[in-house]
Amino acid sequence: MDLIEAEGVESVSMDRLATDLGCGLVALYSHVPSAAALLDCVAATVAARIEVPADPGGDWTAQLRAQARAVRQAARSHPRCAALAASLPPTSASALRPVEAALATLRDAGFGGRDSVAIIRTLGAHLLGSLLREASLAPGRPACAEAARPRLRTAEFPVVTGLLAELAEADPDADFEFGLDLLLRGLTALRPAGTGG
């Protein structure tokens, strides 16, 4: 996981891991059958850190909000590993628990199966996008607006130029919550008529 966070998933190979761990390749294969299986284990480890609220209380939107926050919290310590986990189908029990909880919340709220799955994918995209944005704002990396400032032509981009200060501000928590609020408001409007709560 440290290697993925430092150098990306493309740096992971069985040869590289054997070298880094100071063991033989055969010894490594006795613990894990392939690099793909190893990446599945990384995804399961990330998912196992998600503490799905058993009963967050409140209505279905409060439950979805708590579930999304739990996923984000678990993913923040290893964003590249979380991106890997999001790219793989959920096959382990730990990876399926948050999916099960969210789908059950949506079904209980009156959403059909197809809509529930589409909603989960949309929330996942927001979570992943937020994590990637947050990782790009890590110390030592210039904000997008800061990096663009020297080559920006004011006459060609007057609105962007006028909002450079706002574009340079970065509050990942506020941005995540704003997007989550928008999604939940949209879901409330999309919710089938005749469902209570």
Care to describe what's here?
The chain is mainly α and 197 residues long. The protein has a single domain (2-141, 174-190), classed as Tetracycline Repressor, domain 2. It contains twelve helices and no strands. α6 (79-87) packs antiparallel against α8. The mean pLDDT is 86.
First-residue to last-residue Cα separation: 42 Å
Number of helices: 12
CATH class: Mainly Alpha
Number of beta strands: 0
Percent helix: 55-70%
CATH topology: Tetracycline Repressor, domain 2
> Major beta sheet, specifics?
none
Number of domains: 1
CATH architectural grouping: Orthogonal Bundle
Descriptive keywords:
mainly alpha; Tetracycline Repressor, domain 2
Q: What is this structure, in a nutshell?
A:
The protein is mainly α.
Question: What's the SSE blueprint?
Answer:
Blueprint: H1 2-7, H2 14-21, H3 25-29, H4 35-48, H5 60-76, H6 79-87, H7 93-108, H8 113-136, H9 144-148, H10 158-162, H11 164-168, H12 172-190
Helix pairs in contact: 4-6, 4-7, 5-7, 5-8, 6-8, 7-8, 8-12
